[in-house]
C-alpha cells in the first residue's frame, strides 16, 4: 500500500479534498474518478469504499510530476466542518499530577478505582482553524493555554460499539490543540456549589480555539494510537513532552463510551486529552506573536501563531 495523507486544501474554486503522496498533492475527485469525493466529509461518509479508491489513487499518482508541490498548497482544516468535537477532560496521568502540584492539593485517585467512565465536553465546530493560522487572542482572556492532543476522526457510524472493535470506526488521526481560556473557566461571584459556576463556552469555544491539522493519516498507518510520542513547543521551547500511553482511558475506551451516549458519525472528532506541560501548571500563558507547534509521532506537526 502506498502511503498517503488525506488533506483539504484551498483552491480558487474553494476547498477541495486531496491526497498528499510524498511531496505532492493530488485532487481526490480527479485521481479516483469519483466526482462525489470533492470534500473530505463526503469521503468519510463513504469510508468503507473510499479507502481502496484512495490507496489505488496514491499508488497510481506515485512519482508523477503533475501534482501540486506540497509546500505550495494552503492546507485547510482536514474536516470542514466536524459535526461534533468531543474533548476528553483530565485524561493523562502526568497532567493530573502536575495540576495537583500547581494547586497544592493531593492528586485525585485514578478514576478507574472509583468506577468512573471517560469524561468529555464539546467544543464548537466552527472554532476549528487550519495549520499556519493566526489565532486572535480572545478579548476577555489573559490566560490562554495550549493543549496538544491526538485527535481521532470517525469514519463509520458508531453506536454501542465494544471496546475491542472501537478502533475499527476510526478513519484516521490528526493533531489538535485544545486552546483554553483559563481565566474564563469559572464565573466570578458564583458559589462553587452552583451548577452555573463553570463557563465551558467562554473557556473552550472562542474563535480559533481548536487548531487542527495538518492532515489525516489513515488509521491503517497508526496501528496503536496508545504508542505515540507527543510534543509541543512555544517559540521553539519544548513545553509538552509525553506519550499517548499515559492516557488514563484509551482512544478505544473513549470511542466505546461515547457511542453509548450518542451515535458517532463520519467526520466527528474526538480529542483524546492533553499530557503534562500545559501553561496553567507553571502560570505561563500565550501572548500575541507566540508560535505554537504540536507534533505527534507518525502524524506530523500543527503550527499556528497567536495574533
The CATH topology of the largest domain:
Fumarylacetoacetate hydrolase, domain 2
In N-to-C order, the SSE pattern is EEEHHHEEHEEEEEEEHEEEHEEE
The CATH C-level name of the largest domain is Alpha Beta
The first-to-last residue Cα distance is 41 Å
Count of individual domains: 2
Summarize it.
With 307 residues, the chain is of the alpha+beta class. The protein contains six helices and 18 strands.
Tell me the layout of helices and strands.
Blueprint: E1 5-11, E2 14-21, E3 24-27, H1 28-32, H2 40-44, H3 47-61, E4 68-69, E5 85-88, H4 93-103, E6 120-123, E7 128-129, E8 133-135, E9 144-145, E10 148-154, E11 170-177, E12 180-181, H5 200-204, E13 210-218, E14 229-234, E15 237-243, H6 251-261, E16 269-271, E17 291-296, E18 300-306
Parallel strand pairs: 5-16, 7-13, 8-18
Antiparallel strand pairs: 1-2, 2-3, 3-4, 5-6, 9-12, 10-11, 10-16, 11-13, 14-15, 14-17, 17-18
Properties at a glance:
alpha+beta, five-stranded mixed sheet, 307 residues, globular, seven-stranded mixed sheet, Fumarylacetoacetate hydrolase, domain 2
What does this structure look like?
The protein is of the alpha+beta class. The protein has two domains: 5-72, no CATH class; 85-306, Fumarylacetoacetase-like, C-terminal domain (Fumarylacetoacetate hydrolase, domain 2, Alpha-Beta Complex). The protein has six helices and 18 strands. Strands 6-5-16-10-11-13-7 form a seven-stranded mixed β-sheet. A five-stranded mixed β-sheet has the order 8-18-17-14-15, with no helix packed on it. A hairpin with a 2-residue loop joins strand 2 and strand 3. It is globular. The N and C termini lie far apart (41 Å). 46% of the residues are buried.
Amino acid at each position: 500500500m502506498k502511503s498517503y495523507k488525506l488533506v483539504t486544501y484551498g483552491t480558487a474554486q474553494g476547498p477541495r479534498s486531496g491526497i498528499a503522496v510524498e511531496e505532492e498533492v493530488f485532487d481526490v475527485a480527479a485521481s479516483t474518478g469519483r466526482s462525489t469525493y470533492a470534500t473530505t466529509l463526503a469521503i468519510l461518509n463513504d469510508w468503507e469504499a473510499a479507502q481502496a479508491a484512495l490507496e489505488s489513487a496514491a499508488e497510481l499518482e506515485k512519482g508523477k510530476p503533475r501534482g501540486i508541490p506540497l509546500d505550495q498548497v494552503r492546507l485547510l482544516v482536514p474536516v470542514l466542518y466536524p459535526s461534533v468535537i468531543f474533548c476528553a477532560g483530565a485524561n493523562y496521568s502526568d497532567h493530573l499530577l502536575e495540576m495537583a502540584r500547581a494547586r497544592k492539593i493531593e492528586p485525585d485517585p485514578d478514576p478507574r478505582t472509583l468506577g468512573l467512565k471517560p469524561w468529555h465536553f464539546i467544543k464548537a465546530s466552527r472554532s476549528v482553524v487550519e495549520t499556519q493560522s493566526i489565532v486572535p487572542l480572545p478579548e476577555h482572556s489573559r490566560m490562554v493555554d495550549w493543549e496538544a492532543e491526538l485527535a481521532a476522526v470517525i469514519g463509520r457510524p458508531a453506536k454501542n460499539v465494544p471496546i475491542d472493535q472501537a478502533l475499527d470506526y476510526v478513519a484516521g488521526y490528526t493533531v489538535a490543540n485544545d486552546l483554553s481560556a483559563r481565566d474564563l473557566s469559572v464565573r466570578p461571584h458564583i458559589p462553587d456549589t452552583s451548577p452555573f459556576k463553570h463557563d465551558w463556552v467562554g473557556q473552550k469555544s472562542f474563535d480559533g480555539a481548536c487548531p487542527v491539522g495538518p492532515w489525516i493519516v489513515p488509521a491503517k498507518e497508526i496501528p496503536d494510537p496508545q504508542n505515540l510520542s507527543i510534543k509541543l513547543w512555544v517559540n521553539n521551547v519544548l513545553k509538552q513532552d509525553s506519550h499517548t500511553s499515559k492516557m488514563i482511558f484509551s482512544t478505544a475506551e473513549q470511542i466505546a463510551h461515547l457511542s453509548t451516549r450518542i451515535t458517532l458519525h463520519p467526520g466527528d472528532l474526538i480529542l483524546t486529552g492533553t499530557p503534562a506541560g500545559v501553561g496553567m501548571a507553571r502560570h505561563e500563558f500565550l501572548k500575541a506573536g507566540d508560535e505554537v507547534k504540536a507534533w505527534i509521532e507518525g502524524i506530523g506537526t500543527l503550527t499556528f501563531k497567536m495574533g
